Amino acid sequence: MTPERFKRLTTILQRRQLDLSVVMDKVHKGHNLSAVVRTCDAVGVFNVHAVVPDPCVRTSRYISSSAAKWVKLHRYNRITEAVTAVKQQNMRVYAAHLSDNARDFREIDFTQPCAIMLGTELFGVSDDGLDLADEHIVIPMLGMIDSLNVSVAAALILFEAQRQRLAAGFYDRQQLARADFDKTLFEWAHPKLAEFYTRKGLPYPPLDEEGEVIESSTHSQARLKGSY
């Protein structure tokens, strides 16, 4: 861990947005899941909620090796569970869906706590998801095709949210609580050590300003007794 990399990790984590999220309603193709998660990382989304039924477990493993190491991925069996999770955080849910009352996504105030709901590549957001959403949003299109790949749609909407939040100064202030920030930063900077301390049931030791571990005697003894 170089001081430069630690500084970069710290800066990225300070910009993570807790009140901007994505709900994926059975988006089961591995490459699309991975692309959406990568976009979430680029925009600064901290939590992603994915409805991944049992037959799609293999895609969960697929994305775990990509940008999901920088974004917290929460898995559910039903869309009701995912929507409940974000609404408990006072987020409005915007479903990407072409309907009679859908609004242009650029009209939405994404500086308010919100989650973007995206559906399957073939069928879109499920009926249950549409019923649970607060509003439907649409990306205006002027060609013969009336839909975009789900990962492309996610990128367009999320970067509009980023644009609004940058202008409002949202990325200039840290949203994560101190304890959550320190825990996540340790896991990002020292993933193998984090796994080791978790396995031993020990709290993470603090880090110095360059990202080096400041171990207590308890942590040192635990390291001597086991490998990581």
UniProtKB/TrEMBL annotation:
Renumbered to this chain, the signal peptide range is none
Among SUPFAM superfamilies, the record links this protein to: alpha/beta knot (SSF75217)
Enzyme Commission designation: 2.1.1.34
Query: Where in this chain does the record put each RNA methyltransferase SpoU/TrmH type C-terminal domain?
Result: 163-215
Does S-adenosyl-L-methionine appear among the keywords? yes
Q: Which InterPro entries match?
A: Alpha/beta_knot_MTases, rRNA_MeTrfase_SpoU_C, SpoU_MeTrfase, TrmH, tRNA_m1G_MTases_N
- Gene Ontology biological-process entries: tRNA guanine ribose methylation
Segments forming domain tRNA/rRNA methyltransferase SpoU type: 20-159
Q: Which organism is it from?
A: hydrothermal vent metagenome
Q: Where are the transmembrane segments?
A: none
Keywords annotated in UniProt = Methyltransferase, RNA-binding, S-adenosyl-L-methionine, Transferase, tRNA processing, tRNA-binding
Looking up CDD domains in the UniProt record yields: SpoU-like_TrmH
One Pfam entry name: SpoU_methylas_C
Give the protein name, as stated in the record.
Answer: tRNA (Guanosine(18)-2'-O)-methyltransferase
- Write one Gene Ontology MF term: tRNA binding
